[in-house]
TrEMBL record:
Coiled coil: none annotated. Its cofactor is FAD. One of its GO terms (molecular function) is N,N-dimethylaniline monooxygenase activity. PROSITE patterns: PROKAR_LIPOPROTEIN. InterPro entries: FAD/NAD-bd_sf, Flavin_mOase, Flavin_mOase-like, FMO-like. It is an enzyme of class 1 (oxidoreductase). Belongs to the FMO family. Broad spectrum monooxygenase that catalyzes the oxygenation of a wide variety of nitrogen- and sulfur-containing compounds including xenobiotics. Catalyzes the S-oxygenation of hypotaurine to produce taurine, an organic osmolyte involved in cell volume regulation as well as a variety of cytoprotective and developmental processes. This is Flavin-containing monooxygenase. Keywords: Endoplasmic reticulum, FAD, Flavoprotein, Membrane, Monooxygenase, NADP, Oxidoreductase, Transmembrane, Transmembrane helix. GO terms for cellular component: endoplasmic reticulum membrane.
Length: 508
């Protein structure tokens, strides 16, 4: 019988999960509480309860070649950094191309996900849902993939701001911010200088009233001022440095107190007549439909093997997809997590022992503590390339660089020295895509395409294989150096080296 998989959430992670289930011959049923797909990236003027929400002007800070799904390149004419409306267009193209929408049950909320009484044997789950008419249903699934993200529950640390109850202006979380027009000629303070805080501060700085000596100024509060370099998730905003340099954004230390319409900072400075305070203070994540003995969340921390699998379940039939904060795009990360999870569900890939998984979890926590300041923001951080490689290793799709350089120097050159685009994880192994090579070789053409204002008839330079050949030889030399402990064996019998090279070549 075909295994049935419940997918909770119809955002980018949910769409990837549906497709990966179909690729592996599983039967997905996706439950989406709203009336449309897209999750975080679907703009709505009025935020819905318990749902991620963005403001009108949001543009993704990762380029299209780095954020796309690995077997579906974003159209060449799309800009390299896309507005949220174009991201939604891309998601709809993806869903239409792979016929994903028919597997989504819109306007259906998941109330409970519970292990069945025979879970230790079957690994099955009871899933209770409720539609928009209030009708409740129970379903049995062989596995569950949770894709609700981590931008649903706004973090409002009001207890850390004395006098906030006396504030006479308006304050709200960044998820409730939509456009700057309402605050034209007003005074604003933005608390937090992450990506949302930086974006909102820049946008408000173009319309807000004068604060201080000159210019239209937004005051940005750092929250944390005594951190070391690289100890926080970086803020990516091209305009922010210019706005600070021009004085239109002032960076302040921590807030000491609110008093009426005034805000006093730790350096003793005071801003009077403040109309708006935006709390860009992040989010907390939780799984209200899951029992705490299945997944426990405390202080925005939970224990998941490689951020995907609860390590102590008797059967590995529950996967959390997209619960990471990457230094890069979430879409290809969620996709490769889903590729791994569906292989585990099928039994094609095995998880290690509980002890091994717990050691891996503890090791990651220690590295996190050493690298980042203690904060609810820094509990699910991952580095894009190293994490993608780590999960790709589990699936069996991590590219074999040496083999590529030996058998296809041009492709190997592009993989080694080009951007680490998601297509390279479709070159081999389960889910191999025939178009991956061409997608890699043409990725720069798609980058340049939207910036071309007129056709160029200049003759194209002749391609030379000289450099790929030189680099391939260098790679072989490097491989020999890395394996230098066995060099005497090669020197005594060169056929051993030839046999090793032949073993890495494609079978005839």
């Amino acid at each position: 019988m075909t295994r049935r998989v419940a997918v909770v959430g119809g955002g980018s992670s949910g769409l990837a999960c549906i497709k990966c289930c179909l690729d592996e011959g599983l039967e997905p049923v996706c439950y989406e509480s709203s009336d449309d797909l897209g999750g975080l990236w679907r703009f709505k003027e009025n935020p819905e309860s318990d749902r991620a929400s963005i403001y009108h002007s949001v543009i993704i800070n990762t380029s299209k070649e780095m954020m796309c799904f690995s077997d579906f390149p974003i159209p060449a004419h799309f800009p390299n950094y896309m507005h949220n409306s174009l991201i939604m267009d891309y998601f709809r193209m993806y869903a239409d191309n792979f016929r994903l929408t028919k597997h989504i049950r819109f306007n259906t909320r998941v109330l409970q996900v519970k292990q069945r009484s025979d879970f230790s044997h079957s690994g099955q789950w009871d899933v209770e849902t409720e539609n928009k008419d209030g009708k409740k249903e129970r379903h049995v699934f062989d596995a569950v993939m949770i894709c609700i993200g981590h931008h649903c529950n706004p973090n409002m640390p009001l207890q850390d701001f004395p006098g906030i109850d006396t504030f006479t202006g308006k304050y709200f979380h960044s998820r409730d911010y939509k456009t700057p027009e309402e605050w034209r000629n007003k005074k604003a303070v933005v608390i937090g200088i992450g990506n949302s805080g930086g974006d909102i501060a820049v946008e408000l700085s173009r319309v807000t009233k004068q604060v201080g000596k000159s210019g239209d100024t937004v005051v940005v509060n750092n929250i944390i001022t005594d951190f070391r370099l690289f100890s926080q998730h970086p803020t990516v905003n091209d305009d922010l440095p210019n706005r600070i340099l021009s004085g239109t954004i002032q960076v302040k230390p921590n807030i000491r107190r609110f008093q009426g319409s005034s805000v006093e900072f730790d350096d003793g400075s005071v801003v009077e007549d403040v109309d708006l305070v935006v709390f860009a203070t992040g989010y907390t994540f939780s799984f209200p439909f899951l029992s705490s003995h299945v997944i426990s969340v405390s202080e925005n921390k939970t224990s998941l093997y490689k951020y995907v699998f609860p390590p102590e379940l008797q059967r590995p039939t529950l996967a959390i997809i997209g619960l990471v904060q990457p230094l890069g795009a979430i879409m290809p990360i969620s996709e490769i997590q889903a590729r791994w999870a569906t292989r585990v569900f099928k039994g094609c890939t095995k998880l290690p022992s509980v002890d091994s998984m717990m050691k891996d979890i503890e090791c990651k926590k220690q590295k996190m503590a050493q690298r980042y300041v203690t904060s609810s923001r820094h509990t699910i951080q991952v580095d894009y390339i190293s994490y993608m490689d780590e999960i790709a290793e589990q699936v069996g799709v991590r590219p074999n660089i040496l083999k590529l350089l030996l058998t296809d120097p041009r492709l190997g050159w592009n993989v080694v020295f080009g951007p680490c685009t998601p297509y390279q994880y479709r070159l081999r192994g389960p889910g191999k895509w025939a178009g991956a090579r061409q997608a890699i070789l043409t990725q720069w053409e798609r980058v340049v395409h939207p910036m071309q204002t007129r056709p160029c008839n200049d003759p194209k330079p002749r391609r030379s294989l000289m450099w790929p050949i030189i680099l391939s030889a260098a790679a072989v030399g490097l491989a020999a150096y890395v394996n230098r402990s066995s060099l005497p064996e090669f020197l005594q019998d060169p056929t051993i080296l030839l046999d090793k090279i032949k073993a890495s070549l494609p079978a005839q």
